[in-house]
C-alpha cells in the first residue's frame, strides 16, 4: 500500500513532481529563479542506423535521421539539453559487420552525445576495435566506474565519471557496466576487472554529491532493468544506493512510459528509466531546479522516434 | 487488530513522506508536448546525418547484392533431414574444422535457427543474412563417448540438422536404432569433437547435455561468416551448390 501511494505521487507523467531538496550553494551561474535541464537518452542502439524494417514489430520506428530531426526540435525549444547513451551501441545490423562501428560512433558525435557507458556488445569486435573507433571518432567520453581497465588498451580512455556544469548547476554522471560472466567471452573482456556495481556506485555517487557538490547525480547503467532470479539489475541496485537521483538503464531493451521511482537507502527517491532499444524511443526527463523552494522537480516523456 | 494499526502507521508515514516531496509547482514548469514528433521538421543536422549515411547505405547494398554462388534449385529445411539442413551442418563441420585445426566428428545446428530458404539461381550475401540473421558463433566441444551418446539421443529426438553421424531413428520411440560416427560404431571410451552454435551449446535443451564436457572453445567465428565464406569459395571454384538428402538421418 505504501509503495503504491508513493509511486502514484512521485512518478506521475506529465505532471511536475518534486524530487526533494538539493544542494544549491554551488548554483551561481544564473540569477534566474529556476533553471531547467533536459536529459535525453538512448540505450541498446545495436547498430540500428536505419528505421526498423517492415517485417519487425517496431516497423518504421527509429533511424538516425529521424532521431536527428527530433533532437533538433527539442534543442530549438530547450536551452539546456544533455544527451546520453547507456551502452550496446555495437552489433545487430550489417552496418556493424561491414563498417565495424565507425558510422555508429561518428553519427553519435554528430548528434551531439554528451557521454555514453559500455554495454556487453560493445566488446564484440574486441576491445582494440572499440578503442580505435572511440579514439578516432568520438567527441564524447566513455564513462565506466566499475570496470578496471588497468593494463588493457582501454586504460586512460574510459573515465569513471564526468561533471557537466550547466549555468552553474553541476550534473555528475557516471557509468556502470554489467557482470561479463557468461556474457562477454573472456578473450574479449581481456584483463578488464569487473568491480561490484553497488559499492562502486555508492562511492562514486557520494563523491559526486558530497565532494563535488553536484545538484543531480546520474548513473548510466548497463546492468539491465530487471533480471531473472533477483540478479543484479537497476531495480535491485537502486534501493541500495544513496546520492543517485536518476539511473538511465539499458541491456534489457525495456520500454518504459515513465521512469520507475524507488526509494533509496535513506528514503529519498531514485528514478530508473530506459528507452527500449534500437533507437525506437528517446527517453526524456526535464529537471527544474527551483531557487525559491529549493526543490528539484521533474517531468518525463517517452518520445517515439519515427 | 495489531495488523490494522501497523497498516495505519504505514499509511500515515507514507502520507508524510509524500507531503515532504510534494509542494506547489513553479509557474513555468509545465508538461511539454513532445509526443508530436512527426512534425519535427528536417533541418541542418538531419540533412547532414542523411548525407553521411548515404554512401554507407549504398556500399552496404552493393555488398548485400554480391553473388556468392549459384544454386540449381530452391533449398529448404525439413525433418528428418533436408537439403538446406544438411548443407548448413556440412558447412559448420567443414569450416569449423578449418578454424579449429583438427578433425571434427559431428556438427549440429538447429532447424529453428534457419530462418528461410536459399532461392534458386543467384545466392547473395543478403540471402545469407536472411537465412542466418543471428550472430551465433561456432563453438567446439570435446565430449566423452558417454556424453556423445546422449547427444545422439538428443539428435534422434529432435531431428536437428547434423553432419557426421549415420543415424537411424525408431519411428515409435524417437530413439536411435543405429548410429555410426565416421563409419564406426560409437566408442564409449573415446573422446569426440562436436561443433555447434553458441546458442545450441549454451541456451538450447542440448546445453544441459554438453555442459558435461572435456573442453569448450568459442571459435570467434560467426555462423553467418562461415556460411558466406563457404559459399564464396564454392562460387570462386565455379561450383554450384548441390546438397543432397543423402540418407544420413532416417526414420524407420
From TrEMBL, chain A:
Molecular function per GO: hydrolase activity, acting on ester bonds; metal ion binding; nucleotide binding
Chain ranges of the Calcineurin-like phosphoesterase domain: 38-254
Keyword Zinc: no
Keywords: Hydrolase, Nucleotide-binding
GO process terms (BP): nucleotide catabolic process
Record PROSITE patterns: 5_NUCLEOTIDASE_1 (PS00785)
The family this protein is said to belong to: Belongs to the 5'-nucleotidase family.
The protein's name in its UniProt record: Bifunctional metallophosphatase/5'-nucleotidase
Species in which this protein is naturally found: Runella aurantiaca
From TrEMBL, chain B:
Keywords tagged on the record: Signal
Boundaries of every 5'-Nucleotidase C-terminal domain copy: 75-205
Leader peptide range in chain numbering: 1-19
Example of a GO MF term: hydrolase activity
InterPro entries per record: 5'-Nucleotdase_C, 5'-Nucleotdase_C_sf, 5_nucleotidase/apyrase
One GO BP: nucleotide catabolic process
Alphabetical list of Gene3D superfamilies matching this protein: 5'-Nucleotidase, C-terminal domain
UniProt keyword Coiled coil, yes or no: no
Pfam families to which the protein is assigned, alphabetical: 5_nucleotid_C
Protein origin, superkingdom: Bacteria
Matches recorded under PANTHER family: 5'-NUCLEOTIDASE, 5'-NUCLEOTIDASE-RELATED
Protein name per Swiss-Prot or TrEMBL: 5'-Nucleotidase C-terminal domain-containing protein
Organism: Runella aurantiaca
Amino acid at each position: 500500500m505504501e509503495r503504491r501511494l508513493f509511486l502514484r505521487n512521485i512518478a506521475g507523467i506529465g505532471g511536475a513532481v518534486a524530487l526533494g531538496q538539493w544542494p544549491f550553494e554551488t548554483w551561481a551561474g544564473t540569477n534566474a529563479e529556476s533553471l531547467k535541464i533536459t536529459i535525453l537518452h538512448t540505450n541498446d542502439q545495436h547498430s540500428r542506423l536505419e528505421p526498423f524494417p517492415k517485417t519487425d514489430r517496431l516497423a518504421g520506428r527509429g533511424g538516425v535521421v529521424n532521431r536527428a530531426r527530433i533532437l533538433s526540435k527539442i534543442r530549438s525549444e530547450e536551452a539546456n539539453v544533455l544527451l546520453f547513451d547507456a551502452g550496446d551501441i555495437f552489433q545487430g545490423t550489417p552496418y556493424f559487420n561491414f563498417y565495424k562501428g565507425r558510422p555508429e560512433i561518428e553519427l553519435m558525435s554528430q548528434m551531439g552525445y554528451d557521454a555514453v557507458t559500455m554495454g556487453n556488445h560493445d566488446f564484440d569486435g574486441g576491445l582494440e576495435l572499440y578503442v580505435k573507433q572511440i579514439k578516432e571518432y568520438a567527441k564524447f567520453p566513455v564513462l565506466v566506474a566499475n570496470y578496471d581497465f588497468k593494463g588493457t588498451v582501454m586504460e586512460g580512455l574510459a573515465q569513471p565519471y564526468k561533471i557537466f556544469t550547466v549555468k552553474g548547476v553541476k550534473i555528475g554522471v557516471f557509468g556502470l557496466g554489467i557482470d561479463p560472466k557468461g556474457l562477454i567471452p573472456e578473450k574479449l573482456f581481456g584483463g578488464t576487472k569487473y568491480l561490484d556495481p553497488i559499492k562502486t556506485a555508492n562511492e562514486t555517487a557520494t563523491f559526486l554529491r558530497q565532494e563535488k557538490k553536484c545538484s543531480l547525480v546520474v548513473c548510466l547503467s548497463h546492468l539491465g532493468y530487471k533480471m531473472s532470479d533477483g540478479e543484479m539489475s537497476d531495480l535491485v541496485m537502486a534501493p541500495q544506493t544513496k546520492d543517485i537521483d536518476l539511473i538511465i538503464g539499458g541491456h534489457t531493451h525495456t520500454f518504459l512510459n515513465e521512469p520507475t521511482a524507488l526509494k533509496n537507502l535513506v528514503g529519498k527517491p531514485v528514478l530508473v528509466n530506459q528507452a527500449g532499444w534500437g533507437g525506437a524511443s528517446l527517453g526524456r526527463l526535464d529537471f527544474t531546479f527551483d531557487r525559491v523552494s529549493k526543490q528539484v522537480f521533474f517531468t518525463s516523456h517517452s518520445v517515439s522516434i519515427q | 487488530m495489531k495488523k490494522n494499526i501497523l497498516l495505519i502507521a504505514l499509511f500515515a508515514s507514507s502520507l508524510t513522506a509524500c507531503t515532504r516531496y510534494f509542494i506547489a509547482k513553479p509557474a513555468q514548469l509545465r508538461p511539454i508536448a513532445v509526443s508530436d514528433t512527426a512534425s519535427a521538421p528536417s533541418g541542418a543536422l538531419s540533412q547532414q546525418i542523411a548525407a553521411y549515411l548515404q554512401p554507407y547505405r549504398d556500399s552496404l547494398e552493393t555488398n548485400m547484392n554480391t553473388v556468392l554462388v549459384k544454386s540449381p534449385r530452391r533449398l529448404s529445411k525439413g525433418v528428418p533431414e533436408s537439403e538446406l539442413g544438411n548443407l548448413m551442418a556440412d558447412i559448420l563441420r567443414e569450416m569449423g574444422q578449418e578454424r579449429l585445426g583438427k578433425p571434427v566428428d559431428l556438427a549440429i545446428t538447429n532447424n529453428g535457427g534457419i530462418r528461410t530458404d536459399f532461392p534458386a539461381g543467384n545466392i547473395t550475401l543478403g540471402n545469407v543474412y536472411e537465412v542466418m540473421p543471428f550472430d551465433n558463433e561456432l563453438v567446439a566441444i570435446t565430449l566423452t563417448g558417454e556424453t556423445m551418446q546422449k547427444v545422439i539421443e538428443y539428435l534422434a529426438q529432435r531431428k536437428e540438422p547434423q553432419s557426421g553421424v549415420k543415424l537411424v531413428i525408431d519411428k515409435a520411440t524417437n530413439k536411435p536404432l543405429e548410429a555410426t560416427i565416421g563409419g564406426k560404431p560409437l566408442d564409449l571410451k573415446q573422446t569426440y569433437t562436436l561443433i555447434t552454435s553458441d546458442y545450441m551449446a549454451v541456451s538450447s535443451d542440448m546445453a544441459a547435455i554438453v555442459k558435461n564436457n572435456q573442453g569448450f572453445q568459442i571459435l570467434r567465428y560467426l555462423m553467418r561468416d562461415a556460411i558466406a565464406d563457404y559459399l564464396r569459395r564454392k562460387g570462386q571454384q565455379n561450383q554450384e551448390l548441390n546438397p543432397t538428402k543423402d540418407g544420413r538421418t532416417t526414420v524407420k
